[in-house]
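Chain A, query sequence.
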Amino acid sequence: MHSDHPPTLPAEYADIEFENNAQRLPLVLCLDISSSMAGQPIQTLNNALAEWTRELHDDVSLSYSVEVAVVTFGGQGVAAWRGPQLLPLGAPVSPFVPAHMFRPPQLAAAGVTLMTEALELSMNIVAARKAELRASGLQYYRPQICLVTDGLPTDATGHLTDSWHRLIPVLADEQQARRFRLYAIGVGGITDRGEQVLRSFAPKFNARLQGFPFRELLQMMSASANAEQKGAGDEVFEKIFSQFKTQRPAWES
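Chain A, predicted structure.
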């Protein structure tokens, strides 16, 4: 009997099914874990991820539609995580986990800022996941990618690079075609030049924030996911984002 199925994967890679055929909303957290995030910043990020995970589980409308994948850059380069599990490069398994089953990875800060490659990986896993959902006859909302960094894109040797310029036309086309919504957030001591990179990536949805307000950032992503489910117009997302930028969490009211 001919089968198109990939070879059987180890049990921990078994596809995690939703309990219903809810419309899916893929969400990628593309996180900078380079050495400049060491100490308090990475601790704050880990704590915020743990808290956000609990809030996601408690949010009935999001927990059964949102699928979460984590991409990191720093440490050993660019990596995708399936919940707390680091996926081997090229593993034939989607990093997306249903929100009600998601557990965050425990992140450590080291290494260089391969931001360009991390964004490319994020776009690739979103495209692959959409293809999987279509093949299964499942509907999906516009995916969200959230890039968070405190620095400038580097190459593998840690030197500043302009390779990120190649992403600008690609991101413009993808956003124009409504293939995903990209948020680009600068935290900590990000420089003017760093902010300029983020503005080039996400002209409408970029921010430069004092400190490391990861908790508010993740709540904004949840608010945005809720708006996506309700079929909100662009002005709603812009309002949610501007409230987040000015650190007025009005979406909680």
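The two ends are 57 Å apart (CA to CA). Confidence is low (pLDDT under 50) at residues 1-19, 249-253.
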